[in-house]
Design goal:
By secondary structure, this protein is α+β, with helices and mostly antiparallel strands. About 50% of the residues lie in helices and about 15% in strands. It has helices at about 15-30, 55-70, 100-120, 140, 150-155, 195-205, 265-280, 295-310, 315-330, 340, 345-350, 360-370, 375-400, 410-445, 450-490, 500-525, 530-564; strands at about 5, 10, 35-40, 45-55, 90-95, 125, 175-180, 185-190, 210, 230, 240-245, 250-260, 285-290.
């Protein structure tokens, strides 16, 4: 799975769209990056840009955009309502999928260093990327704004984290940070009362409501020793919320910003609003997602609501998303299209390359039977493994829902989730095996006129051949792992489906044996015999283990069938 991060730079220009377009053009030039949104504001004279992609590519796109902004925007004449201190005022990075906050921090600091050194712009690192506690808060970094920047930089306490400590009159300074993904999420109510919506919002938001003496509405506001209002915290951490009336829909909503979906995910926020609304005699009718959301958030929501029903969570991705949409009523006000709302799906739409796993069963068979050398035995072996574990996953799901086995639903749900994970990896390997084959063909087609070209071609062939061994070896490993699930379903699963577990065992063993043939044939092209020897030793051990497990599983299947 690809690592994805989001970048949301704010540029100090919101009126000249020709200028803004020149900046965003720099982003769109970088392959592996998708421009998601450009939101200009005339009053603020500021444009918020959102793009997402793989980390190195996002860093490159961000740098090029900051560089272009420094060439086009002159802060000496800038006026706008929003606080700002530079041509690129802020540039936060946000982890989206398969990447940790710690990794994102390193990328943010890498970007900050490059901006400071190559563009001579003072850079402050803020939020999670901050080197100093007082710089975590963006407001502190931006205090004094552009007009006070020269004096601020002369203060030893405010030396920039990267770049010169001197005032850059044209570009000002930039804050580069790393923060959590923010989701704008509105919950719909069966009321038109803004007052009641606000009451629910105060119940759930982290800040809560103002503490009063005596009566909660008319009582005197409680203040601390410094004269600040005292608040009673709400029930949800990392949540900002307010109630409002939406004339377009004719309903009141709880409008929430979930500032850390790792702390409070959308499904928890939704359920908590439901509870607080019911306590006040109000009913939640659905919800609305503003902007995009990571795939993991939708999958986690689907699993959460299936768990509440005591149903197996081991279903495919599309079904989990469907459950999430229906459970939270995300399609109440308008159609909810995952292809347009889930970040990973938005990115995938631009990937033109066709995949074998997107073919119909008939299409896959016909392509395999054609004169094309790919897909070949390696892809078919991976597909066999995917079919085998899919059968075992089906048995797990049927067992989870079997009448009289209600107390075992979670046991089988856990097995089904493991099966789905293995199935997804093997489906990935169906296409990866063909890609590995194509890499070998590409390497052989490289020029070989000069000695340098011959050397580079030889290196490319060797690397491609090694990878062509690694892919089927991975098919063997994952298919062998699936046999643990298959055996468990033969022993413990719904006996009416035991033959399905048996077929699954046959598929898994065939996947291991078929992939083994590909390991062997690709080894012949690898000159490093130490590597091939180690891989072959592992492969031989796995194919023997698969044969042994197949016999054991089929014996179990036969024994169960005889008892029926």
């Amino acid at each position: 799975m690809k690592k994805l991060i989001e970048c949301v730079p704010n540029f100090s220009e919101g009126r000249d769209m020709v200028l803004v377009k020149q900046i965003t053009d720099e982003i769109e030039k970088i392959e592996g990056v998708k421009l998601l949104d450009v939101d200009p504001g005339a009053a603020t004279n500021r444009t918020v840009v959102t793009f997402v992609g793989t980390p190195d590519e996002v860093i490159e796109a961000a740098f090029q955009a900051v560089k272009k902004a420094s060439e086009l925007i002159d802060m000496r004449g800038h006026k706008g309502e929003h606080p700002r201190m530079g041509a690129t005022d802020v540039c936060p990075l946000i982890p989206v999928s398969n990447i940790t906050m710690e990794e994102t921090i390193e990328y943010a600091r890498k970007l900050a260093k490059r901006i400071g050194e190559e563009l001579s712009i003072p850079v402050f690192c803020y939020e999670s990327a901050a080197f100093q506690p007082e710089r975590k808060n963006l407001a502190n970094c931006r205090s004094g704004e552009y007009e006070g920047l020269s004096q601020k930089l002369s203060d030893p306490k405010w030396q920039p984290d990267f770049g010169p400590a001197s005032f850059n009159e044209r570009s000002g300074a930039t804050a580069v940070g790393a923060r959590d993904f923010l989701v704008a999420f509105n919950v719909n109510l069966n009321t038109t009362s803004t007052r009641r919506a606000n009451s629910i919002a105060y119940d759930v938001r982290e800040r809560g409501r103002v503490l009063r003496e005596g009566h909660p509405i008319t009582g005197k506001i409680v203040k601390d020793d410094k004269g600040n209002q005292v608040y009673t915290p709400g029930s949800l951490k990392s949540v900002k919320a307010i109630g409002w009336f939406i004339e377009e829909y004719g309903i009141a909503q709880i409008s929430m910003n979930l500032t850390n979906i790792g702390v409070t995910p959308v499904h928890i926020a939704f359920d908590e609003v439901c509870k607080k609304a019911e306590a006040r005699g109000v009913r939640v009718t659905g919800s609305e997602l503003v902007g995009l959301i990571p795939l993991k958030s939708m999958i986690d929501a689907g699993k959460y609501f299936l768990s509440k029903q005591q149903r197996s969570k081991g279903v495919d991705e599309a079904e989990l998303i469907k459950i999430a949409i229906k459970s939270m009523g995300l399609d109440e006000l308008k159609p909810f299209n995952p292809e347009e709302k889930v970040i990973e799906y938005v990115l995938a739409k631009d990937q033109k390359a066709s995949k074998l796993i997107d073919l119909t069963v008939k299409g896959f068979a016909n392509l395999t039977a054609s004169e094309s050398p790919a897909p070949g035995g390696g892809s078919v072996a991976a597909y066999l493994g995917a079919l085998g574990v899919s059968l075992a996953t089906m048995v797990a799901n049927l067992s989870s829902h079997k009448r009289g086995w209600d107390d075992r639903w979670e046991e089988f749900s856990d097995w089904a989730e493991k099966g789905q994970k293995i199935k997804d990896e093997l489906l990935f390997l169906v296409d990866e095996d063909t890609r590995a084959f194509n890499q070998i063909m590409d390497a052989f087609s490289l020029p070989k006129k000069s000695d340098i070209e011959k050397h580079l071609r030889h290196q490319a062939i060797q690397e491609a051949s090694k990878y062509a061994m690694q892919v089927p070896l991975r098919v063997m490993k994952v298919s062998l792992e699936s046999m643990e699930l298959i055996e468990a379903m033969a022993k413990e699963g719904n006996p009416n489906s035991v033959s399905d577990a048996g077929v699954g065992a046959l598929c898994a063993r065939s996947a291991v044996m078929g992939a083994f043939l590909n390991v062997k044939i690709n080894a012949s092209g690898v000159e490093d015999k130490e590597i091939t020897s180690e891989m072959m030793e592992r492969a031989i051990g796995m194919q023997k283990d698969a044969q042994f497990r197949e016999v054991r599983i089929l014996d179990i299947v036969d024994a169960v069938i005889k008892k029926m």
